[in-house]
Amino acid sequence: MIREIKYRYCLDKDTDELLFIGELNKKTRYDHKYKCLECGQDMEVNMGQVRRPYFSHVSGCACDGESYLHKLAKRRIRMKFEDSDSFNVVFVRDISCSESDSCVLKKDFGCGFHDERIVHDLKSWNNKPLYDCCQEEEPCGGFKPDLLLTSKVRPELPPLFIEVFKTHKSTDDKINSNYKIIETRQIKSEEDIDDIIEQGFVENENCKFFNFVPKIAKRRKTDVDVTRVIIYPGGKTRFLSHGEVKCGMMNIKYDPKSLCEFNVQSFPHLHKGTSSVYILLPSQVALDWAVKKGMSIRNCMLCDSYRYNDSYSRYMCIKYKVLGDSFKFPNQYSAQECKEFRYSSILSNCTLADLQKLGTEVIEQK
Questions:
Q1: Is residue 322 part of a domain?
Q2: What average pLDDT does the structure give for the chain?
Q3: pLDDT digits 0-9 by tens, 182-209
Q4: Would you state the pLDDT for residue 323?
C-alpha cells in the first residue's frame, strides 16, 4: 500500500518559485535546487518505481507539516488569484419564489429553491473590476489576515480577508469587525487545497463566508405539485395531488368540462377566533367556496354528519343507523336525496375571506 506523501510542493532555492512534483521528470529534476516551503532546509526529489514522486528533506528531518500546509494554502490561493482572469466564490443559499409573499399555498411546499449555487467573481462584477491585489500577512484595520484582497483601480472598495483555517479559526473580534471574510474549512491535506484551487470558494463545502450580503434575485417556482380540487356539474368532485398539476399551472384549468376548480392547501387548517382550529378536507374548502359564490351544490362532504372515524380510519356518516347501512360510507351523490342532510356548522361559520386564506380559485386569463 502506497503511504500518503507529505510533500508535493517545495520552493526553488534560487528563485523562490513554487514547484510541483508532478511537473518534474527524471531529466528536469536536476534543473533546480530545492528548499522546504516551511523550514527552508534543502530538499531532494524522490522518484522510485513503486511510490509516487515526492520531495523530502536532505537531512532526513521533517519540519512541522501543519505549518507547511498553512503556508502552501496561502501561496497557492494567492498564485491562483494573480494568475487567473477570475476567481469564483459560490454562495449556496435558499432562494424564495418571487410569488412567495402572496402565495397562500407556500405552507405546502416552501415556495423556493433549496441549496442553489450562486456564482460570483472576486475579480469583477457586472463588467466592473473588483479586487486586483492579493497580499500575504498584510496588516489591515488592526488585523493581519492570511490574505488581504484590495483594489488599486477602486481604492474605495472595502478590503476582503481570506483566512486559512489550519489550527485556529477566525476570532470573534475579527468576525464582528464587519470586514468580509472567507474562511477555509480546516486544511488537513494538500487535496483540500486542490479543491479550493479547482472550484474556488464554495460555501459550506470548502469555506464559510462572514459579513457577506449577496444580492440574490427571487425566481418564479413553477414545478411544485399543487393540490387541485375539481368540481363538476351536480356537485361531484375530483381530487388531484400526485403531480397532475404544478404551481406554474395555478390559473390553468385541468378539465375543460369542470364547473370550477380550486388550488387548496394539502392540509387546510381553519382558524376561528383565538383558540378554535378546524382541520378541513381540501374538497370541503372547494365545495364550500363554490356554494358561497352562489352555486347550488349538495354533497356529503358539506354535511354536518360527515365525520372522521378513528376506528375505521376514514370518513363516514354518523346518521347511517337512521338512514340505513348503505349510507355508512356514502358516495358524493348520497346527499342529493338524503333527508338528514344539514349543512356543516363549521363551514356555515366560515366566510369567503377565510377560504381565500386556504387556497385560490382557478380563474383563467382571457
A1: yes
A2: 90
A3: 999 999 999 999 999 999 999 999 999 9
A4: 94
Domain residues for 18?
A: 9-63
- What's the order of all strands across the beta sheet hosting 180-184? 133-136, 147-150, 160-163, 180-184, 207-210
Closest by alpha carbon to 228, among 208, 215, 243, 209? 243
pLDDT at 2 over 50: no
pLDDT, tens digit (0-9, with 9 covering 90-100), for 21-63: 999 998 899 899 999 998 899 999 998 877 889 998 888 676 7
CA distances for 10 relative to 24, 26, 30, 76, 209, angstroms: 12, 17, 14, 12, 30
pLDDT-derived band at 104 (thresholds 50, 70, 90) equals confident
Cell of 150: 484590495
Exposed e or buried b per residue across 214-250, where buried means at least 16 C-beta atoms within 10 angstroms of its C-beta:
eeeeeeebeebbbbbbbbeeebebeebeeeebebeeb
Question: Is residue 3 included in any domain, yes or no?
Answer: no
Q: Is the pTM of this model over 0.90?
A: no
Distance CA 108, CA 227 (A): 9
185 and 92, same structural domain? yes
Q: What are phi and psi of 161, to 5 degrees?
A: -100, 140
Residue predicted with more confidence, 64 or 256: 256
Domain co-membership, 187 together with 232: no
Do 357 and 238 belong together in one domain?
Answer: yes
φ/ψ of residue 83, rounded to 5: -95, -5
52 within some domain: yes
Residues 288 and 332 in one domain: yes
The sign of the torsion formed by the CA atoms of 331, 337, 340, 345 equals positive
Q: Which bin fits 243, alpha (ψ -120 to 50), beta or left (φ > 0)?
A: left
**Structural domains in the chain (count):** 3
